[in-house]
Design brief:
Order of helices and strands: EEEEEEEHEEEH
Largest sheet: 10 strands, antiparallel
Mean pLDDT: 93
Number of strands: 10
Number of helices: 2
Low-confidence stretches: none
Structural class: alpha+beta
Distance between the termini: 21 Å
Helix content: 10-25%
Strand content: 25-35%
Length: 145
């Protein structure tokens, strides 16, 4: 367990299980904080230290869509060009994430699939690809709904 809670009971908590999945949530005055769209929890799934999927849940543990974007409750990631991603990851890691990389989504390195709260695929209007830096940010849990 990792927590970053201040003296007033505000902050975030992360639990890691034996499968290296990370459940993350925020508290406000020691109470579960409900984020926009009713999202309370995020569950990060990793395989061999690579982020595979993020799922978001409401306070009752039900999948909950992120209404601010495509109403996705699950985002699945596929690294299609692993060597290229690892090359870029090395640069990002060396800078501890403090680097501006050109959006490389057109290089089709990492694809995403979105699913709603019923696990039904969501059609993406633009591209099914994201930038390497964006994926890195998700992987190190820099993103909150």
């Amino acid at each position: 367990m990792y927590n970053n809670i201040d003296t007033e009971g505000n902050g975030s908590i992360e639990f890691t299980n034996s499968k290296k999945q990370i459940l993350r949530f925020r508290v406000n005055k020691r109470q579960l904080q409900i984020l926009h769209g009713g999202i309370a929890f995020q569950l990060f799934y990793y395989e061999n230290d690579f982020l595979q999927k993020i799922a978001t849940f409401d306070a009752n543990g039900n999948l909950s869509g992120e209404r601010e974007s495509q109403n996705e409750a699950v985002v699945k990631f596929t690294i299609e060009k692993k060597a290229e991603y690892l090359r870029k990851k090395k640069l990002i890691d060396a800078a501890e994430g403090n680097i501006d990389l050109q959006d490389d989504s057109a290089e089709k390195i990492i694809s995403i699939q979105l699913f709603d709260a019923n696990n039904i695929p969501i059609s993406i209007l633009k591209s099914n690809y994201i930038a390497s830096k964006t994926y890195w940010n998700y992987s190190v849990r820099m993103y909150w709904p």
